[in-house]
Fold each of these.
Amino acid sequence: MTAILKATGLKKRFGGIEAVKDVNFEVHPGECVVLAGDNGAGKSTIIKMISGVYQPTEGTVTFDGEKLTGKSPEAVRRAGIETIYQDLALADNLDAGLNLYLGREKMTRVLGIPVLDRKSMRNAAVEVLKSLGIVVPDPTAPVRDMSGGQRQAIAIARAIHWQAKLVILDEPTAALGVPEQREVMALIERMKKKGVAIILISHNLPDIFAAADRIIVLARGVIGGERRPSETSDEEIVRLMMGATS
Amino acid sequence: MTAILKATGLKKRFGGIEAVKDVNFEVHPGECVVLAGDNGAGKSTIIKMISGVYQPTEGTVTFDGEKLTGKSPEAVRRAGIETIYQDLALADNLDAGLNLYLGREKMTRVLGIPVLDRKSMRNAAVEVLKSLGIVVPDPTAPVRDMSGGQRQAIAIARAIHWQAKLVILDEPTAALGVPEQREVMALIERMKKKGVAIILISHNLPDIFAAADRIIVLARGVIGGERRPSETSDEEIVRLMMGATS
Amino acid sequence: MKSLLNAWSWLFLVLILGFFEIYARIETGQTFLFRIYNIQSISVAASQILLLSLGLTLVVVAGHIDLSIAFSTGLAAVVMALVIRIIGPESGWLVVILAMAAGLLSAVLVGLVNGWLVAQLNVPSFIGTLGTFGIARGVALIVAGGATVSIRSEEARSFGNGEILGIPVPVLLALVLAAACHFLLTYTKFGVHTYALGANRASVERAGVDVKKHLVMLFVISAITAGVGGLVYTGRFSAGAANAGEPILLYAVAAVFIGGASLTGGQGTVIGTVIGAFIIAVIQFGLVFSGLPPYWQFVAVGLVIIVAVLVDQSRDKLTGSLS
Amino acid sequence: MKSLLNAWSWLFLVLILGFFEIYARIETGQTFLFRIYNIQSISVAASQILLLSLGLTLVVVAGHIDLSIAFSTGLAAVVMALVIRIIGPESGWLVVILAMAAGLLSAVLVGLVNGWLVAQLNVPSFIGTLGTFGIARGVALIVAGGATVSIRSEEARSFGNGEILGIPVPVLLALVLAAACHFLLTYTKFGVHTYALGANRASVERAGVDVKKHLVMLFVISAITAGVGGLVYTGRFSAGAANAGEPILLYAVAAVFIGGASLTGGQGTVIGTVIGAFIIAVIQFGLVFSGLPPYWQFVAVGLVIIVAVLVDQSRDKLTGSLS
Amino acid sequence: QEPAKKDFTITLVPGLTTDAFYITMNRGAQAAAEALGITVDFQGAEEFDPVLQTPVLDAVIARGPDAILIAPTDATQMIEPLRRANEAGIPVVTVDTFIDDGKYQDGSGDGDFPVSSISSDNVLGGRMAARAMAEDMGGKGKVYISNVRPGISTTDQREAGFKAEMSEKFPEIEVLDTQYNENDASLAASQFQAVLARNPDIAGVFGANLFSAIGAGNGVAGADKADDVTVIAFDAPPSIVDNIKSGVVDAAIAQHPAEIGYYGVMTAYAVLTGQSVPTAIGTGFTVIDADNVDDEAIAKFIYSE
Ligand SMILES: Nc1ncnc2c1ncn2[C@@H]1O[C@H](COP(=O)(O)OP(=O)(O)OP(=O)(O)O)[C@@H](O)[C@H]1O
Ligand SMILES: Nc1ncnc2c1ncn2[C@@H]1O[C@H](COP(=O)(O)OP(=O)(O)OP(=O)(O)O)[C@@H](O)[C@H]1O
Ligand SMILES: [Mg+2]
Ligand SMILES: [Mg+2]
């Protein structure tokens, strides 16, 4: 099977800081690659270079045979990549339904005029969240008023609700309750079965081992090592995170 | 030993939602009480009522024999309670040092005039973060430019840097790397030894069991049960979270 | 919640209307509110403010500001008057419509420049539109030769002063545009994206919306409603003045904020702005009507603006504790 | 980074000074910059703008705005003139100092009301200070009886027009206040909390800072520097006018934003504002000096304001890609 | 200064640059300049305000014209700034408005240094407006003044003259409170309508400047009261003249700005060439109304646009 995503020679500087230096990896359809690494290792920066939020200082990303580098987040999303960012990026003043559908709003017709279908978006949001184990007490409330985990769940729902070929999840379970964490892990399993490629960023070792087909460990902007979960151990991964060379 | 913190009959409404309903508990010096519970159970709301950010709709909080209810966050902090909030509440445009010391800035004298001692605050911040296992590449950069975990670490440092009698931590390890998570757990252990009381909110079962002297499980705004870690199991806690009555 | 907010602004408007009504009955024995004449006068004054603040509302909801409307209005007024003068008013409605199109186009140009500055060059909107404020002002004055351009066109006059079914044309126009802006902000994707943009630019950007194009459109809409304000001005006064909009700028901005918008963006409604504009027009009319000495009127307008917002505040407290 | 930002504003100021210098040498054979008269004139004009924008800078950094400065200035000017007129100018410096104290006090009152509205009653600052704008205006006019209050006091005159070591007193005052505000914003807890407040109110609140008190102080500081502007006005022109500050409000706000502040708060420096005020004063003086026709000056000022910010933008790009 | 020099440069600083009155004054000044073969520049601020006029004046002084014609924006407040011109050796002629008491070169007062004042007395203009109004109204009724904003010396003087004339000569005319409109014609219209709602017997409005007058006129027309309410305008730009023709405005008090500009340049030239000049020249007013608006003789008093 050929790789669906290929990152070659990725590099990113911020002012004087080289956050990412020469990173290369591939992801195959139906495969879950975990990006692990210490805080500030460059994980979020890498996925932002894939999703079009940052332009790499050097290097290229190809997806499905096409070059992604230089494209806008919009174009990347249209190409079939959905991303949940660590900072969620919700519109705090809108309700869960509108956040879920932001950019792809459902419309209906009233007297022949196309208008937003707030209600059906709201209902769909309640449904999707329920499938993640989350109950939103008041679906008309702006997401500003929601708990940390409820907000996290909306961001996840936003990514999985669309039929993407690659889903990127940056610490998706960070704020989730235990039952919800289990839901998300199950969800990743289901997506893999459907052939969706997944890049997961996580600091939770049990989750990493449960979900990963391959673990890529970053340390200070470079790949410190790559392991299959069956061939490694918690301690080795932590050693790699802390900068031990493999 | 008498309780240092006593919450009695706490209740909080937001508009039509009753987020917390009649919650009672105590915390003793040197004890770590874990508040566990599903997303939206009301954990953050409870600690905000303790720290003065929210005023309870009903109920009282007493600390060290004194009534806290109705006091400002400032007064609560002066009384000896430090809090790390889930939403961090950092000033994104300031550097790590200023964030660490916000409200208690270090001063120095230049020509007899008291001025901010930015440098020494910055150095102190680098030190404290190092003790948590975090290296900040550019300590003069605003925290806006830092990674999720680096920001989290600053919020933790802000609470533990001061000699408090009670430290409240709302999901402190959520964004932290594995080594840093371990540092924080060790830190909680050290604080307990010094007689500091701790309220910890966490969704990580291993952490909960490792740190807790008592686990209080919340479900939909009420206390579903209270357990000592030695007397319970993962599965029981999860059942309680999901609303099973004990 | 949104409908509740509007209800409270309405309430305040009703309160001041009630105040003036009682005052008028006691002092002069007349009615204040139930005279078509008074209602028409107030509505026309409100519509002149409203035309500047409608598009502005959208810009403010998106977290920006547009100061250039002060002179987009003036530019449109001057260009319309000049075209009528140059072609001559004999050609009737044709020339008036042509002139209005030209005036509107000149305003749209200002809006395009604003959009380009803010979206493409990342100039903060306060500074960018302050710059185009100066440019539009200079251009309007140069085009007009510094003074007002008076015209004699019966058609233009009837456009500015006529009535349809007893409703003055400027009021009708303002209400139609208000309805359009309300529809845009509440029932379309464009509106949702505008709110999201005001709350968190990243949210719309990552949702794949072309934020730059969106910003340009917002500033063009703002320029269009302000430009229509200029056309109405030229029609009403049979003269295009470069500074037609400038004295209204502050009131237009105030209407938007009284209507519930906030400097930080993400908040505000067209209905709120309409009510805000009417509150201002009612105060201005009512204070003169009640015979308050002129300097006291300044004080009273200031007080009422503050109280208008306080009423809005107490709503939050009341609903917070009641519901 | 902060120092770099300032370096770029400086650069732009130097650029326009250089432009006018070359222009003046070619066109008139005179020097533009190296004449004490020109420097003094520009500095005095800049200082009048600056006095309104210094305190405003702090307010804007904290994420608010203060429109009432337009009439805090006027109120202070009128009150100072009135006190001198009532007591009589014979008592020399004593009465002038008393009058200045009274004028300043009246401005401080406006600041206290602003602070109370914004901090205690949660009124958005744009609306709250627009309200006190009207109130201060009305009060100033009522106190002054509508007219300007002219005085004949040699001491007041020398306060407004005198020089110390060749530096005009208004310039000296503005620079001293600028230094004080810069110190406050950069070297004190108060300053850090102001920045933090602008970025995230919760951060300072939870850090245990009394945010309400802080806000009141900010608005009082803003009223004080604007009030000093009014005292300088009365001294310079031997007359207190209620309108003293209104025509420069927009320039004062522009100076703050050209200096790098942003509507959303958390950004801006006093040095930036000083440069902003000088950029405005140099353009105004330079354009008249260069003989550009008046309406073209509006266009030129608009362009320069935009370019000033674009230069600032390109800095970000350059440093971003270079370092 | 050698008297041989002929190509003088004179700068005309108006009260504000965006007003037909001053634009017309500039036309007159340019006509004189052409006749004399000298240059006249036009430089001013955007509003009638001393804070804005002072920096412009400072820059004009730096440019060093041979003489300055200026319409000072305040009688007291512009003394200090103009003193600097005098100290730089530039002769000052005040046009339209004046500084101090308007009596120059008599050794009294702070503002004694300008060489000449060429003014149309705004107080007198206000009095003429009152007379025209009273005549049209038959000497009794209620009137009010629609003005820009308090604190502008020219419009304040027109208001003062109007009120003084009414109280001295026409005791049966009641002058109501002045309404300020911020130069917003729309507000001026709404204010008229509010005054009318309160005083259904209102019989006259004096619009103290262009926007006050066209706004009030629009308010009157909107109320269908053109026949019952007398509208008197100050200044006579074409838009006012059009309004006189259409009957919305009853009469306009036209100053003679072109004359002022012309005499101003002539006076300055005389000073520069060493001739003696009168310290005060008054120019008159013309009342334009429906009866004379189409006269050839009147056309020259209509301001240019
Ligand atoms: N916009 C920026 N400007 C400057 N430096 C940045 C910026 N974004 C990230 N950095 C720096 O780049 C490095 C990598 O950051 P990144 O967010 O990719 O880390 P991460 O691996 O996602 O960490 P975490 O697990 O804590 O989220 C960090 O040192 C961070 O401070
Ligand atoms: N300001 C608010 N206004 C309205 N509702 C609120 C507000 N804050 C919280 N809520 C609601 O109250 C409930 C409890 O929220 P809280 O933040 O306390 O949950 P939590 O237990 O901390 O959850 P998590 O683990 O996801 O952080 C949630 O349903 C939330 O939507
Ligand atoms: Mg990250
Ligand atoms: Mg929480």
Amino acid sequence: MATTILKTNNLSIKFGGVTAVDQVNIEARENELIGLIGPNGAGKTTLFNLLTGVYQPTDGEVSIYDGTHLKNVNHVPPHRRAQLGIARTFQNIRLFESRTVLENVLIAMTTQSKARTAQALFRTPGFYKETAKKRARALSLLQIFDMIAVADELASNLPYGQQRRLEIVRALATQPKILFLDEPAAGMNPQETQVLTDLIKQIQKTFKITIILIEHDMNLVMAVSERLYVLEYGKVLATGTPSDIQQNKAVIKAYLGEEG
Amino acid sequence: MVEAVLRVENLSVNYGAIKAVQNVSFSVNPGEIVTLIGANGAGKSTILRTISGLEKPVTGNMSFEKQSINHMSSEKRVSSGIVHVPEGRRVFPGMTVQENLQLGAFTVANKNQHKVAYNNVYEQFPILKTRRHQDAATLSGGEQQMLAIGRALMANPKIILLDEPSMGLAPLYIKKIFAIIQQIRDTGVTVLVIEQNANQALKIADRGYVIESGQIIATGTGAELLSSDEVRASYLGG
Amino acid sequence: MKKIIAIVVAFVVVIGAVIGFGVSKKSADKTSDVITIGGVFDTSGNASAYGQAEQKGANFAVKRINKAGGIKINGKSYQVKIVNKDSKSDNTEAASVTTSLISNTKVNAIVGPVTTAATQAAVPAATKGQTPMMSPTAGADDITVQKNGKVQPYVFRAQFKNSYLGTKMAQFATDNVKAKDVVIFQDNSSDYGTGITNAFKKAYKGHVVETDSYQAGDKDFQAMLTKIKNQKFDAIVINGYYNEAGAILKQARDMGINVPVIGPDGLGDPKLAEIAGNKNTSDVYYAAHFSTKAPATDAAEPFVTAYKKSYKQEPSQFTALAYDAVYMIKQAIENEKSADKAKITAGLAKIKNFDGVTGKMTMDAFHNPKKSIVMVGVTNGKDTTATVVK
Amino acid sequence: MSSIIQQLINGLILGSVYALLALGYTMVYGIIKLINFAHGDVYMLGAYFGYFFIKVMHFNFFIALVLSMFVSALLGMLIEFIAYRPLRQSPRIAVLISALGVSFLLENGMSYLYGSDKRAFPQAIKTIQYHFGGIQISNIQLIIISTAVTLMIVLTIIVKRTKMGRAMRAVSADQEAAVLMGINVNRTISFTFAIGSALAAAGGVLIGLYYNNIDPLMGMTPGIKAFVAAVLGGIGIIPGAALGGWLIGILETLTQAVGLSDYKDAVVYGILIVILLFKPTGILGKNKREKV
Amino acid sequence: MDKAHIKYTLSWATLVLMIFVFIYVTTIFDVIGQYGMTTIVLIGINLIAAVGLNLVIGMSGQFSLGHAGFMAIGAYATALVSSAIPSIYGFIISLIVGIMVSGVIALAVGLPTLRLSGDYLAIATLGVAEIIRIIIINMKSTRGAAGIFGIPNFVNWQVVFGLSVVAIVFVVNFVRSTTGQAIIAVRDNEIAAESLGINTTKYKVIAFVLGAMLAAIAGGLRASFIQSVSPQDYTFMQSITILIIVVLGGIGSISGTVVTAIVLGILDVILQNFGSLRMVIYALVLIIVMIFRPKGLLGTSEFSLKKILFDSGGDHGNNNSKNQ
């Protein structure tokens, strides 16, 4: 069995009096593709925020595999977690809007950069060399995602679907081990969603990373996920393969209300 | 043939460079429940926001009771009877339930009408009556949604625009909310509702429109759409 | 490539034009029949109350000189023109407008700036431009002195040195007010307040019970006064300007602190009594340059009368000092029989027994006017006594 | 002991004026998120209006106070209409610069028209000193505190109980939702400026009476202090502004009382920074994290 | 370095040289005179300070109202050090001392306060600048309110011109560096930047410290040029003056800052003659510019030589013109 790369232990968070995430235990293994579903307000995004370090849990812990063993990262801030190999996209798109598509990707490479600021200040040959190298890498990423044509567009000028896609490219540019996708298909039409479905599968294959995905589009989730967690009221309601979940009475009820 | 109470023709709305709504036309007849369904970001909310004046259309015409409302201010639209319950409820958190309701009746000058409206709302939502001195922030999601709807009813609406009323609610509340929507219609108020919970919405709707990427791709009665395989596949999962 | 050529050509043309203009301008320089005085005053910003008063004084002097036929050099009358520039209570701006007056307006002499700090900033510009500069009110001791101890060749003032003021006030406190213990309030935001305080403390033979600071613009002095209220002291010394001193006076008297108040010439403004209220402005002594009660010279009385007629208000010390500054320049020109900048500079250094509104003045070796200090006593808002402090 | 109480009273009086000013700051901030740098200058103009009504029109002090508040309210609305409303959709910092422009305009316009010199404010009410044990307090000080407290109560009633007050709170909490209630946002903002300006004017007139002098630049320092007070209390929160105002007044007074008058402002700013570090949104502020 | 880059760098160098020659010619033929030179120096000094503030406000999105404090540190460093060592070396040392002290204080202040957001940060930085000023007023060695004068002058227009060019090149190149891009990322979307492994506090502090250092240079140059310093020079109003240059030019636009510094410098020259009406006109200009150009004179766009001269395009990322 593949190594467990991410694990939570009774993870909980309270906002005011409301327990948004309640005693959640999930785990993800290397190169696994996990779907996280549940009705609106079930706590999915909050769980993402706990895993990526945006929120501090009220209780429980988050552990990440650091190459040798699972390590508690409760007190590791988001940027350090990113350096440990966690990348994400956001439900409400968060691009660097004043930057071009290419620059968005280049910024994601900040922590891997070897270029010294001093080199940039004096525009040494080293600066140009390093910049060219980074740019080549970024462009090749954009190539994979078919975004070369818009590389010099401002991120804010892209259509919605493309913006979502750029967020994924940007996240991948950090060379993550785990990629969190928060509703990547939101706002996409069925054709776009179909393309995205293939893309997610391809990412998993090409980059050999673990992907955890929140999504409402059942076609997509069912098509790509190897395993699903269903959240309701901040609790894990069910877990299993897509076909298990589709048969699960409780899930159908939670999702479609009563009948289904 | 009845004259539509709300008519939208060739409406297009942009957010910067993004074309959020393209050439959308539809109408709502008096006393109907009409639903717009579609994926997140399909442009449903934008349509409602444009009808209530929060967004400016690029092209197209909107008319309410045969009068164009394109250039009417938002306040005027409210006082003429178009009331919008926004996505995410947007109750005023630091104010009490009663104050929220009072704000709902902001455009109603007649104090006697206020009293009638209070009674109606409290009758329909007894829980709001018991909590009337509580801050809105302390209400649960479902209660907040009721408050948002109650607040809209205070304005004496002719048509009520509901944006995702079931969002984030427990099934029990969802059921309640849809029952309330029907009740509202039964009192003679026309309803235009956006839902992701397409299943429920179509069940109570007289008619529905399916929106995708800012365009209407299908229309029909609630039952027709509900039985359409295509719609089922897209919005109700495999 | 075409673009680049076009730009190069344009550049060459522009440079050529500049050279041409420069050459033609050189030949166009000529002398004029008007003597120009530059005025550097803070007419906007924090110090504008003082700057506006001084600008009025200088303008009034120029008006009177011209009315009386201008300045006569070798029998020929020259009209005087004053060009005022606002230094907006900003020291850098003071330096900049001084340069502007010297190099663009080509003034013969400068009156101003108002404050010590602005004068300090303007000194290099005046020195570089070899233009005499007469500050009406800069008080710091060393503004007329270079680092090496030599005199600043182009800088003069009509004002007392701070140390001189402080020393004389201390003497007055002991000899006339008979104060054994005093409380000092100083305006900490300018050198005027702190400079006088230092000199006062050095010269004062009694005991300074407490020294407290305030900032220009402060209005509330309750805390300061409450603190000293129950201590024993015979007089309060306020080293600052009338604006705050008036407020202190009012609040002190309201609080029942009725000891004598001693202050420098910064208190010498009719506004003092207006702000404090006439009743509260009693038993107040301030160092005056001029007073109708004890006119230092014959020039004072007519000046006050004429000024009142023109401006419908009483002149303040600031107005009078700026007025004298302009007249000293006139004196220097007449003595040297030339409006040449170097001659004016030399003339100012040699001023002797000049009958100014603010006293009979003689420039010392360091360009400070030697004049006697008159401590004016105020009762009910009116100048009532005048004591010359020797 | 009595001198400590006396100092606290001094601080309370000084703080009352800061509080009146801070209330306007905070209300404007709450509703359009603007640091209204011109607020201190409305306070100055309020004082000048008071001067005009008493000295030239010979009105009774309290009538002059009310009239000055009224005229300043109109002025506040005018300023908002001309200099801020066209910038409703612009970056916040643009409005801030516009506010600075208005501030410069009022200060220097007044200085240009009436000179920078201080004017004695007419003593419409004769000062009477009362003594309680070692404590001394004047009728004017009492007027200041009671007027400030009364105005705060009136303000609270307006904000809590009236239709316009509810509209203000609604706009400040959620502008878009307010629009959906049929609230005219522009009119509500205008009204907020009117109230804020009236409070500032009241502060100006009271200060004029108390310190007996007014000048075109009198708003600069209190303006910044009031801003500090509003931030200290939690900007946008009405009780916070009152609390912040009094706190700063008392702090300033106490700093002087312990002999640190050279460092008076430094101490106030230092304490402000320390409080912000522990409570980044002010004493009564609620910490909000951006929704992710 | 490939050919395109050499061409690009050379064309900029040529432009700078052309401006230099232009000013040089105007001075030797005495077209602008002493006063013109003073104006150029003061514009250059404001420019350096404003470029520094733009780094803080424009690039990193942090609202600082405390620039005057750091200018004061630079000014006093130069005043004290170069008075003690009255030689060009003393002056250079004094600038370095000012930069270092300013940087260290900015670091000490920035680390805790940059956690504050928006207007809370603004008031905290305003407070810091006031505290710096009050300490200077009360210190013996700085001669209190009187200030220091008789500072030796080592600044002429050539020095300021040179340093302005260096400051601009520094900031422009810095923005293009990885660090600079990270700073902009933090401004655009702090949470997204964090999620990409960017330590947001670190980059905010870097921008703040660099801004403070540039302010110190500006202060040092001014002290040496004016040959005197006094605490009144560095009040809140000084911060506002610099802030206005940045905002009027367009936040985040270095070209805008350059243009506005020059325009306002010239406006100042004209307004000096208006006496007390001066600031009234200035105020009206501020309001009118903001109403009609709320994003500043140049918005967020940058002046691009490449566009004007070569207009080839195709080279990614060198022009960030955002037209809305």
